[in-house]
Amino acid sequence: MSIEGVPTIEPLAHAFDELPLRPSALFDRAPAIISVHQGPEHVYLYMNARTELVADGRDLLGRPLIEAVPEFKGQGIVERFDLAFRTGKNQRAAEIEVRLPARDGALRRRRWYNHTVEPWHDGDGRVAGVMSFAFDVTEQVRSRRAAQASEARLTRFLDAMNTYAARLALDGTLLGVNASALSLGGVAADDVIGLPFWETYWWSHDEGTRQRLRTAIEAAARGGTVRYDETVRTRDDDRIVVDVTLAPERDEHDRLIAIVASGTDVTERVRAERALAESEARFRVITDAMPQLVWGANADGVIDYSNEQMRLFAGLQKVGQRSFLWTELLHKDDREGAADSWAAAQAAAAPFETEFRLLHHTGEYRWVLARALPLLDGGEVVRWFGTCTDINRIKTTETHRRLLTDELNHRVKNTLAVVQSVAYQTFSDTDAEALAAFDGRLAALATAHDLLTREAWEKAELSDVVRTGLRACGVSEDRYTVSGPAIVLPAKLAVTMAMAVHELATNALKYGALSVDEGVIDVRWREGVGPAGPRLSFLWTERGGPQVVPPDQRGFGSRLIETALANELRGSAHLDFRPSGLVCTIDAPAPQVRRPPRPIR
C-alpha cells in the first residue's frame, strides 16, 4: 500500500497480501469503523466503508487525525490514539459517547462505541502507527438506559406508594425492595437484599409465618399467584396484618424470571371484620336467648335471619335456614290487614306494629304481636329488624274475659230491669215525678255500666262520661259543647261522675237552660298545678235559660254532687245558682292516670 508523501509499510502490506481477501473487502465486511493510521499525528492510511459515518463526505486519507476530523478533539479519542502510539499498548474504552461531525463542522448526533486502538510495528519492531476499531453499541446503550430509567421511575413510583413491594429471585432471594417496606421494618436495603425473603426482619417473629411465606414463594416460582393475609413485624416490634400477593414475573418469551411480592396494610379492615364477627356472634347469642321471635328482613320484607325461637316456633330448623316472605306464615284472614300496615310502614320508613296469627310448627295459628324498626341509609330503608311476641295466651284470656264480662253485663242489666220493675210496683201510688227521677238515675247507672264494660271496668275517659250522660238524657249535640284535655277516671269515680252529669242534665232539662229552646250548656275542664300537685278543675255552665232562683232546700242531686262526688274526688264541688244560669264548679286532685295510651300505629 503506497500513498504519496507517506513511506510504504512493507510488513503491513505483506500481511495484507497473504490474506485470502483483500483488506478493503475484509474490513468492509466488519461490523465496525476501522481505520489505519501512521506516525504520531495518526495520518489516515486506510479506512473501511463504515468510516464514512465519521468522514461525512470528507477526504480523510493522507491527513492527520486532528486535521481530518477536528471534532474528535476534546472527546478523549485523540488522547487514546496518542497513548497507544506512545506506549505501544492496546487502549480500550467501553461505551464511549461520541459526537459525530457534520460537513459544516457541527456535532450532529450522539452515538456510543466500544473503542479499541492497537499499535502496529515496522520492520524494525518500532511502533509505526495505530489501528482503530470502533463498534457501534448505541442501541444497546439506549435500550439499557431506557430500561434503567423505566426501572428508576418504577422504583420512585413504588417508593411513593404506601404499598409494600419487593422483587425476588425464583429461589426466594430478595433482589430489591421499596422504601415503604424498608421504613415499615426500620431496616436498610443492605441489611436484607441477598437474603432469603422468609429470613428477613418482617417475618422473623414466627416460624409459622416464615413457613407459610416460603410455601407461597415456591408456588409462585412454579407460575402460580398466591394471595393471603399475614401478620408482619414492624420496626417497633409491633404487628400489622398485610394482604400479601406473590406473582411470577415473565420475560418477553414468557419464561419465569423472578417473583414480584406486594402487600397492603389491612390491619383496620381485619379489625373491623373481627369486630363485626364478634358483634354478630354476640347478636346471635343475645337473640337466641330471648323468648321473643327475632327476625331480620331486607327492604322488601324477605326474612333472611331468624333466631332460635323463631326457627323452633315455625319449624324452620327442620328444613334449614332459608329466606322467605314473612306473609307466607300468616293466617289467610290476617294477611290483607298486616300487608296494609306493612306497606304503610315501608312508605313512611316508620316503625311497624300489628297483631296477627302466625303459623306454629304444630300446624295451628297463634296470635303474635309483631314490631319492627327500619334501618335507614340516606333516608332509604335498607333492612328491617323485628320481633314477634307470642300473645296467644293473652288473646285467649281476653276472649274468655270478654265472654264473662258480656255475661256479667247481661245479668247486671237483668238485675237493673228487675229493680226497675219492683220499683214501679212498689212506688205505683207514689208521686210520678219521684218515680221518674229514680228511673232516670237507674238508667244513668246502667249507662255508666255500659261505658265501663267497654274498658273491662277499669277506667273511662271523662269526655266519654260527659257526652254519654248527656245523650242518655236526650240532649242533642247542638245544645252543648264539651272541651278539655284527655282525662282518664278510675271506675268508681267514673260511676259517681256519670250520676252527677245525669243530675245536672236532668235539672237543666226541667228547670234550667235546656228547658227552653235558646238555652245551651258549656262543659269544660282543665289541668293545673296546686301546692299538693296536679289538679283538675271542672266547670258546668248554663246559658240562655230562664232566670234561676236558688232552691229553698237541697235535693238528692245537689247532695250527690256537693257531698258524694266531692268525697269521691277528695276535693270540692259547688253549685252556684246564678240568675243567668246554674254553674257547677269542681276542684280536685287530678286522677293518677290522666292520658290514654297512644294508639298503635
TrEMBL record:
<dbReference type="Pfam" id="PF07536">
    <property type="entry name" value="HWE_HK"/>
</dbReference>
<dbReference type="GO" id="GO:0004673">
    <property type="term" value="F:protein histidine kinase activity"/>
</dbReference>
<keyword id="KW-0716">Sensory transduction</keyword>
<keyword id="KW-0677">Repeat</keyword>
<dbReference type="Pfam" id="PF08447">
    <property type="entry name" value="PAS_3"/>
</dbReference>
<keyword id="KW-0067">ATP-binding</keyword>
<keyword id="KW-0600">Photoreceptor protein</keyword>
<feature type="domain" description="PAS">
    <location>
        <begin position="150"/>
        <end position="220"/>
    </location>
</feature>
<dbReference type="InterPro" id="IPR011102">
    <property type="entry name" value="Sig_transdc_His_kinase_HWE"/>
</dbReference>
<dbReference type="InterPro" id="IPR013656">
    <property type="entry name" value="PAS_4"/>
</dbReference>
<dbReference type="InterPro" id="IPR013655">
    <property type="entry name" value="PAS_fold_3"/>
</dbReference>
<dbReference type="GO" id="GO:0005524">
    <property type="term" value="F:ATP binding"/>
</dbReference>
<dbReference type="InterPro" id="IPR000700">
    <property type="entry name" value="PAS-assoc_C"/>
</dbReference>
<keyword id="KW-0157">Chromophore</keyword>
<dbReference type="InterPro" id="IPR000014">
    <property type="entry name" value="PAS"/>
</dbReference>
<dbReference type="InterPro" id="IPR001610">
    <property type="entry name" value="PAC"/>
</dbReference>
<keyword id="KW-0285">Flavoprotein</keyword>
<protein>
    <recommendedName>
        <fullName>histidine kinase</fullName>
        <ecNumber>2.7.13.3</ecNumber>
    </recommendedName>
</protein>
<keyword id="KW-0843">Virulence</keyword>
<dbReference type="Pfam" id="PF08448">
    <property type="entry name" value="PAS_4"/>
</dbReference>
<keyword id="KW-0808">Transferase</keyword>
<dbReference type="GO" id="GO:0009881">
    <property type="term" value="F:photoreceptor activity"/>
</dbReference>
<dbReference type="InterPro" id="IPR036890">
    <property type="entry name" value="HATPase_C_sf"/>
</dbReference>
<feature type="domain" description="PAC">
    <location>
        <begin position="352"/>
        <end position="403"/>
    </location>
</feature>
<dbReference type="InterPro" id="IPR035965">
    <property type="entry name" value="PAS-like_dom_sf"/>
</dbReference>
<feature type="domain" description="PAC">
    <location>
        <begin position="226"/>
        <end position="278"/>
    </location>
</feature>
<feature type="domain" description="PAC">
    <location>
        <begin position="94"/>
        <end position="149"/>
    </location>
</feature>
<keyword id="KW-0597">Phosphoprotein</keyword>
<keyword id="KW-0288">FMN</keyword>
<keyword id="KW-0547">Nucleotide-binding</keyword>
<keyword id="KW-0418">Kinase</keyword>
<keyword id="KW-0675">Receptor</keyword>
